[in-house]
Amino acid sequence: MRMRNRDVISIRDFTKNDIEYVLDKSAQMEREAAQKRDLLRGYVLSTLFYEPSTRTRLSFEAAMSRLGGKVISVAEAKVSSVAKGETLADTVKTVEQYSDVIVMRHPSEGAARLAADTVDIPVINAGDGANQHPTQTMLDLYTIRKACGRIDGLTIALMGDLKYGRTVHSLATALTHFDVKLAFITPPELQMPADVKRHLDDVGIPYREIAEVEEAGKVDVLYVTRIQAERFPDPAEYEKVRGIYKITPETLETLGGARIMHPLPRVDEISPEVDGSDHAIYFQQTRNGIPVRMTLLSLVLGVWE
Ligand code: NCD
Question: Any residues with CB less than 8 A from the CB of 247 and at least 6 apart, and which?
Fold first, then answer.
């Protein structure tokens, strides 16, 4: 029961073995989902989302439902007792009395860790501010492995808001376990944080920092992200970089057959004309959230190994 009762807070808490174990189990889950319809019968998941979400919350809910479990959720933190001044610690202690596992998204970095330290049931971080989004990374790696057949040996470009985007912080950190070459495509204002780059340097993962997608050359995967408007302290700074990138069918030609990924939601950084291309795999990526989250829930609840 190697993951029973484990919290999923930062991808840094997972070894390469742990990550590969989750990916292998997710592939098995995808194949065997039909036989696992009752695996989580009798279990209750609470979702606590203090920031907007479509995919992450719905895919956790769908994952729980597909395994026979139930979901309770605070629709909007504004209508919960948080609005009356309740602390996060008291809220999660309360939710612990009603459920077996908590999935939480919060604007403050470290909020998920605080929740995990407060309760005994497993807590899964569905995004804490600009910090981490570990389950997105698991589904991103699952998608890369499925589409490219492997992760080792690939050249992967991350593009867009690498400063505030939590998905790229988690993903770049996870990729330190693999033999990859990275390219970071950002305007100077939105570069990958120094601590993530230091980690890559320590492990010896080569990365290039460039400003234009056309400079990337041939890459295997282009991971596009949204500029995180809500995280800019100064709206004037956001205006300077708004709409700076746009992937079009013409861009695809310069990238030598790269698979295009995006955690979604997109704003305008990938033209809808790209959606029909065989190289656009962002909706498959979204779908992969289901087997990966079914797996994570089953593992941390200790009903599968
Ligand atoms: C991302 C997030 O919330 O960090 N969305 C997601 O979970 N798929 C990306 C984003 O909001 O840009």
Answer: 213, 222, 224, 260, 269, 270, 271, 274
